[in-house]
Every structure is written in C-alpha cells, then in structure tokens.
Amino acid sequence: MLPRISRTALSILWITVALTMVGCNRKTIYSRYQPTPLEGWEPNDRLTFSIEPMKTAGCYEEIVGLRTTSDYPFMRLTLIVEQELFPTHQLMVDTIDVPIVDEDGAILGNGVSTFQYTFPLRRLDLNQGDSLQVSIHHFMKRELLPGISDVGFAVARHQ
After folding, report:
1. Strands 114-126 and 110-111: what pairing?
2. pTM
3. Is the peptide bond before 120 cis (omega within 30 degrees of 0)?
C-alpha cells in the first residue's frame, strides 16, 4: 500500500510541476488551479480565475484542468464555465461534459492517488488589453460532490 500524502504536500507538488511546465512552455500565459472543499464541492461554490490583460493580440486556447481522487463516484462530470471578456463585457457560457472513467471503469486521468485531466474549452481571438473573468462550477444532480480536489484554468497562445 502506498503512503498517504497530505493534501498540502500534494498541492505543493502539483504547483511545482505546473510552474515547471509553464516555464518550459512560452505559449502558456495563464495557468492556475484552485482547491475545492475536502468535504465536497457544492454547485454554488464557484471557482473564479482572473486573467490579466493580454500583452499581444492573437488567437488563444482555453483549457480546463481537473484533479480527482478515487472518491469521485461518477463516470462523468458536467461543468459550467462562465466568462466575461473585458472591456467589451461580452458574456460566454459553456457547458462541458467530461469523461472521468471509461465504460469498463478504468480511470482516464493520469496519476496514482490523484488523477489529472485537461479538457480544451474554446479558442478566442483576443485584442491587446483584453482580459477575462472566469467562473467554474459543477452541474451535477448530487449537491455535495466528493472526490474533486482541484479545478484549473489555462490560457495559451494558439500557434
């Protein structure tokens, strides 16, 4: 049996890995994860991400990240991603239904005790100075959703 790693130690490890990957990938301009409550994630617990103004205009890719534990009880997860583009105040709402395990029960994420997933969201043409406010919450029938440890959001320059 593998030793249990504390959530804090695991978060520090993931942050270190993410920063290393971002440092090596000059296309990524924003990448953050936020933890969800240990007792379970409620649908009204919205995770928000504030993306600073773009330094250059161009086409950008948005990616949603997810970390789960074996406590997650479902095969899929439905997320609502709400975005407001500034300075135009354009609102964008996406519903994404993401697979967590396949039909045979095999976990589709990468990892050992925590499983990492990434899902493309959309491509956006952004102008210099545009910024985004992003909010993510789950849209599942179960109110208190166990097994989701972190949710992330990334923006990368499309090439």
Report:
1. antiparallel
2. 0.80
3. no
